[in-house]
């Protein structure tokens, strides 16, 4: 209710709380769902990032039982009862213990969800509060078939809880962190790969902590990988009779990823006889460099000056290297020069 002619000592008249919510919304993140395009004053809800992402983290009790503990922290909850009415900024100043409903009997599995939720009587119902709560999911015949229950419209999911038949405690292995983090538009968002938001801000960078990779949002609302930086040269583990020549000036067979994400091989090695069109197992690419396709790498030669090309095929699962000879037979002791940038590895 507005104050008419407030006294001089009063800094400002009273005003609707929505004014503050809208002001805060203007400072926060980009809308993260396709449905938000029709409500451009919405923002992305989420937990405030922190050094070790401990804010509102859900964990098991010290001695696991049918409770979970939610740590302190801040959370931004978008108002979605009507939409476009700003955000709620909620603070939890310490650990909160939440009870988890008793498990079902044989053959009954469910997925409960820990949420930070806001209820606002200005729009719906009679409650005006925010709270941490566990929303019980419906029972299913298997763990893989479980789904969340109906979540409050104004909430941020914090963790999913896997509850099996006759379960008597919630351990760390039953808890899946599903927090999304709220940041200013365009900032780097630390998040698990499984919880990376849909429709990111164009150019928004995500650090996927569980895979130690960076992704970014495209203009089409999709995710794409940032170009990896060049890696150091790493030795190829040779197999069978294949070995480095050991001659002065001949580098050992090695591999790396270039600054633009290409697989590069280098080095000189000797090996077994390989007839034209035949294959030979050479060795293994370091696991961190395993590409996802077959490459051509120059070149193959006998002990004479004759040269041709060979195909180096790298297994995208194991990293095993298979050399396919070209048209010139290689005698035992012939050499193979690895010297090429072989297309994009990722």
Write the layout of secondary structure elements.
Layout (H helix, E strand, L loop, with lengths): L16 H9 L20 E2 L10 E3 L6 E4 L2 E6 L8 E6 L3 E4 L10 E10 L9 E7 L19 E9 L11 E3 L11 E3 L13 E4 L4 E5 L5 E3 L8 E2 L1 E2 L4 E2 L9 E4 L4 E9 L8 E6 L10 E7 L5 E8 L5 E5 L10 E10 L2
Give the structure's gist in a few sentences.
Helix content is about 5%, strand content about 35%. It is mostly beta strands and about 350 residues long.
Task: Describe the protein in words.
The protein has three domains: 169 residues, no CATH class; 41 residues, no CATH class; 111 residues, Immunoglobulin-like (Sandwich). By secondary structure, it is mostly beta strands. Strands 15, 16, 17, 18, 19, 20, 21, 22, 23 and 24 form a ten-stranded antiparallel β-sheet that branches. Strands 8-7-9-10 form a four-stranded antiparallel β-sheet, with no helix packed on it. The protein starts with 16 loop residues before the first helix and ends with a strand.
């Amino acid at each position: 209710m507005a104050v008419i002619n407030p006294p001089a000592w009063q800094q400002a008249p009273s005003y609707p709380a929505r004014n503050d919510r809208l002001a805060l919304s203007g400072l926060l993140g980009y809308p993260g769902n396709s449905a938000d395009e029709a409500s451009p004053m919405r923002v992305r809800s989420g937990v405030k990032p922190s050094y070790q992402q401990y804010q509102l983290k859900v964990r098991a009790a010290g001695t696991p039982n049918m409770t979970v503990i939610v740590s302190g922290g801040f959370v931004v909850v978008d108002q979605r009862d009507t939409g476009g009415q700003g955000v709620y900024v909620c603070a939890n100043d310490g650990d909160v213990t939440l009870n988890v409903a008793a498990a079902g009997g044989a053959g009954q599995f469910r997925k409960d969800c820990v949420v930070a939720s806001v209820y606002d009587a200005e729009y719906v119902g009679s409650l005006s509060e925010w709270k941490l709560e566990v929303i019980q999911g419906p029972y299913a015949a298997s763990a893989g078939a479980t789904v969340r229950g109906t979540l409050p419209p104004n909430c941020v999911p914090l963790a999913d809880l896997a509850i099996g038949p006759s379960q008597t405690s919630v351990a760390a292995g039953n808890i899946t962190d599903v927090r999304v983090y709220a940041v200013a538009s365009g900032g780097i968002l630390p998040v698990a790969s499984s919880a990376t938001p849909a429709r990111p801000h164009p150019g928004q960078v995500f650090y996927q902590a569980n895979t130690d990779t960076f992704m970014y949002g495209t203009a089409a609302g999709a995710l794409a990988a940032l170009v990896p930086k060049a890696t150091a040269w790493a030795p190829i583990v040779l197999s069978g009779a294949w070995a480095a020549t050991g001659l002065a000036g001949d580098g050992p067979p090695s591999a790396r990823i270039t600054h633009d994400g290409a697989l590069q091989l280098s080095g000189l090695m000797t090996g077994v006889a390989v007839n034209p069109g035949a294959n030979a197992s050479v060795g293994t690419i370091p696991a961190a460099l395993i590409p996802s396709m077959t490459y051509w790498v120059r070149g193959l030669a006998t002990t004479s000056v004759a040269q041709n090309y060979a195909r180096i095929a790298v297994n995208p699962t194991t990293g095993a290297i298979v050399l396919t000879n070209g048209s010139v037979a290689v005698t035992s002791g012939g050499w193979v020069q690895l010297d090429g940038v072989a297309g994009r590895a990722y």
